[in-house]
């Protein structure tokens, strides 16, 4: 990274590749065109990935289990007629290629099939549970990204000191902890209560019911404390480590020496010169985390009976309700692809060196 | 072999001396990482306990029918960690569970790294359209939510330890493949590869005798880091009830504890030990992996600086 610019990026790049409306000529129009080309490329890539997800989900659930209907009715008394009618219901009596084209056409129009367990459209079930997951994971990601950035910056700036060692040590330890176990332990300690500690948080769910207005918001927030703490504790290490590594990478750079030679205070050098450059890889990380955390919340939602997609996935697994598992798989993978796409699109806006 | 035997002997003894030297150098550098040493020590102890499990507790701890204690006893002299809902000693189960965690962790990481290395070396060596296609597939696997894919694989296949190993192994190889491909490209741009080609070395010879030894250190670091991930994923799958129901594992113990109502009745002594065990093993492998990584690639400066 010897070409790192000494201009602090935090002040916004006035001549950045933002698609602004100017005349047809000039550097702005050219960079806008370059950015549009870049966007088109990334959109195409995302579309290919999404199609690949559909193909995979089809083969995962139709081919590997051998007979999906047998897998779903495993351990129950089912007559031959019932099996045959289930096969017809899932379209398994058609040739494979026809099943595949039908599946793709339906999925693209938003129809992900019918749940075997709830007898309701999979898309509807997912839409109903989505807000709860977005709320929980959104809050958790914002908190742990902030925490990770802050602690990572502190750690790297004073690397090798005791504070850095404690910081990384704690983060690595929490990272090695299974999230579901931490959740269960938090429930025992703070909801059920051990010894002198009273149970002060609800054991699960999202609301007590019967509250409206501000009371409702406070109630949901009260229910969210423990799941968010669990997600943050297990997740912030990754942001911390990436931020620390990328800041350490910048710290040997000449432009920091120049900034110091200009007589800037250490604090200003860090805030205005080093951190903005080191932020770039971390921003990508945050977006990829957003995609991951939706899937990662499966366990936390299960443990805290949070009424979101993760909890739904767990319910679907225990049957197993293959159409629902399949739909959720597509949604989780789609979220990853979407977040990666957003990170890719944002990156050249933050770093003008990318995508030219 | 047309080479005279004495020359062969000196050549191989030279090679061995060189290997001994590099191992010694590695160890001298590794020794300076205190966290890495701590991880190695913890792993040695846990591996010993796991190997000696049949001697320490006997294989009948898993038996549900003739369990020695009453259900859900608190920790006592006879049962240092208490008993589960079937009256089995939790300490015995914990020791026995170490075997499955370590086995699955090691084998899944080995499988994942083997796939990753193979794909990486082939893509790096052959280049062209083959590399493009392979790397597209790798990239695509990279954006898949690994845990969800592993869960789905474990759901649609039959319940066994092998399913779990396979599910973890085939979902976590892409990172290794990317790293190995980059390293392969770096190695193949060196002059001695050209020399080997000029002397008539084929693809197989170059990949196995020149590229592979050079990517091995990287692979070693990846494996160590991958094991802790594999162990966590195994525990997760077992907790979700997707593990082998006949085998005692730490994740399975946590599932049992939850089903027995240990959470609502406040039996923290049932819940705490398996989780601590998972965390200690995963942390130990992470610490070792980071130490190995920073010894082999000091520029990363992950834990030494």
From TrEMBL, chain B:
CDD domains, per this entry? Answer: TM_PBP2
Q: Does the keyword Transport apply?
A: yes
Positions of the ABC transmembrane type-1 domain: 98-289
Question: In which compartments does the protein localize?
Answer: Cell membrane; Membrane
Q: Which residues cross the membrane?
A: 35-57, 100-125, 137-156, 268-292
Report membrane topology. Answer: Multi-pass membrane protein
The protein's UniProt keywords, in alphabetical order, are:
Membrane, Transmembrane, Transmembrane helix, Transport
Q: Which Pfam families does the entry link to?
A: BPD_transp_1 (PF00528), OppC_N (PF12911)
Question: Has keyword Membrane?
Answer: yes
- In which family does this protein belong, per the annotation? Belongs to the binding-protein-dependent transport system permease family.
Q: Which PANTHER family match?
A: OPPC IN A BINDING PROTEIN-DEPENDENT TRANSPORT SYSTEM
User: Per its record, how is this protein called by name?
Assistant: ABC transporter permease
């Amino acid at each position: 990274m010897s070409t790192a610019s000494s201009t602090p990026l935090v002040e916004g790049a006035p001549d950045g590749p933002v698609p602004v409306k100017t005349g047809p000529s000039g550097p702005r129009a050219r960079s806008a065109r370059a950015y549009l080309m870049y966007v088109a490329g990334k959109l195409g890539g995302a579309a290919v990935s999404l199609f690949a997800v559909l193909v995979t989900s089809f083969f995962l659930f139709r081919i590997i289990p051998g007979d999906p209907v047998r897998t779903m009715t495993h351990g129950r008394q089912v007559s031959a007629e019932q099996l045959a009618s289930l096969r017809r219901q899932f379209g398994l009596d058609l040739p494979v290629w026809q099943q595949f084209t039908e599946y793709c056409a339906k999925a693209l129009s938003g129809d992900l099939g019918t749940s075997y367990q709830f007898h309701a459209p999979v898309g509807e079930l997912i839409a109903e549970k989505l807000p709860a997951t977005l709320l929980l994971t959104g809050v958790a990601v914002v908190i742990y990204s902030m925490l990770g950035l802050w602690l990572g910056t502190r750690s790297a700036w004073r690397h090798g000191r005791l504070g850095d060692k404690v910081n990384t040590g704690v983060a690595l330890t929490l990272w090695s902890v299974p999230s579901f176990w931490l959740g269960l332990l938090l429930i025992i300690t703070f909801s059920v209560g051990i010894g002198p500690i009273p149970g002060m948080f609800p054991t699960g769910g999202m609301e007590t019911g019967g509250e409206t207005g501000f009371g409702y918001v406070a109630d949901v927030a009260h229910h969210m404390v423990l799941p968010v703490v669990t997600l943050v504790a297990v997740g912030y290490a990754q942001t911390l480590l990436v931020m620390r590594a990328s800041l350490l990478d910048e710290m040997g750079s000449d432009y920091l020496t120049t900034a110091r030679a200009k007589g800037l205070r250490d604090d200003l050098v860090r805030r205005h010169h080093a951190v903005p450059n080191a932020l770039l890889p971390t921003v990508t990380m945050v977006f990829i985390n957003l995609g991951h955390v939706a899937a990662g919340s499966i366990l936390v939602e299960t443990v805290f009976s949070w009424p979101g997609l993760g909890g739904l996935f767990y319910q679907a697994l225990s049957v197993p309700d293959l159409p629902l598992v399949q739909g959720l798989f597509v949604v989780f993978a789609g979220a990853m692809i979407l977040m990666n796409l957003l990170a890719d699109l944002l990156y050249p806006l933050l770093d003008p060196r990318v995508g030219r | 072999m047309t080479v005279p035997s004495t020359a062969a002997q000196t050549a191989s003894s030279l090679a061995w001396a060189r290997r001994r030297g590099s191992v010694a150098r590695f160890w001298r550098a590794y020794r300076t990482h205190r966290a890495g040493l701590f991880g190695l020590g913890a792993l040695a102890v846990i591996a010993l306990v796991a190997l000696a499990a049949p001697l320490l507790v006997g294989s009948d701890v898993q038996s549900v029918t003739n369990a020695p204690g009453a259900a859900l006893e608190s920790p006592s002299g006879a049962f240092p960690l208490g008993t589960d809902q079937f009256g089995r000693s939790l300490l015995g189960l914990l020791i026995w569970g170490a075997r499955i965690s370590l086995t699955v962790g090691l084998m899944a990481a080995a499988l994942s790294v083997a796939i990753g290395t193979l794909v990486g070396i082939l893509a790096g060596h052959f280049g062209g359209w083959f590399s493009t296609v392979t790397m597209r597939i790798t990239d695509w696997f990279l954006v898949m939510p690994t845990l969800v894919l592993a869960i789905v694989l474990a759901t649609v296949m039959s319940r066994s330890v092998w399913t779990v190993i396979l599910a973890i192994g085939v979902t976590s190889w892409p990172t290794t493949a990317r790293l190995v491909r980059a390293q392969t490209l770096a190695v193949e741009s060196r002059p001695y590869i050209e020399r080997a080609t000029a002397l008539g070395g084929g693809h197989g010879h170059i990949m196995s005798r020149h590229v592979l030894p050079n990517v091995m250190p990287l692979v070693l670091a990846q494996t160590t880091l991958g094991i802790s991930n594999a162990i966590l994923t195994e525990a997760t799958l077992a907790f979700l009830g997707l593990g082998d129901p006949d085998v005692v594992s730490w994740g399975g113990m946590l599932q049992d504890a939850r089903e027995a109502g240990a959470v609502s009745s406040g039996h923290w002594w049932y819940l705490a030990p398996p989780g601590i065990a998972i965390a200690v093993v995963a942390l130990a492998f992470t610490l070792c992996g980071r130490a190995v990584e920073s010894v082999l690639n000091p520029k990363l400066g992950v834990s030494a600086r």
